[in-house]
Amino acid sequence: MDVDAYLRRIEYDGPRVAGPETLRGLHRQHLFTVPFENLDIPLGTPIRLDLCLIYDKIVTRRRGGFCYELNGLFGELLTAMGFSVQMLSARVRHEDGGFGPEFDHMLLKVELEEPWLVDVGFGDSFVHPIVFREGGADQTNGYRCVVLAVGDEWQLVREDEKGQVPLYAFRDVPHTLDDYQQMCRFHQVSPESHFTKSWICSRATLEGRVTLTNMRFIVTGGGSREEIQLSTEGELRRCLREFLGVEFGETVDLARLVRVSALLEKPEIADPSLAEAGS
Question: Which CATH number fits domain 189-274: 3.40.640.10, 3.40.50.2000, 3.30.2140.10, 3.30.470.20?
Answer without folding.
Answer: 3.30.2140.10
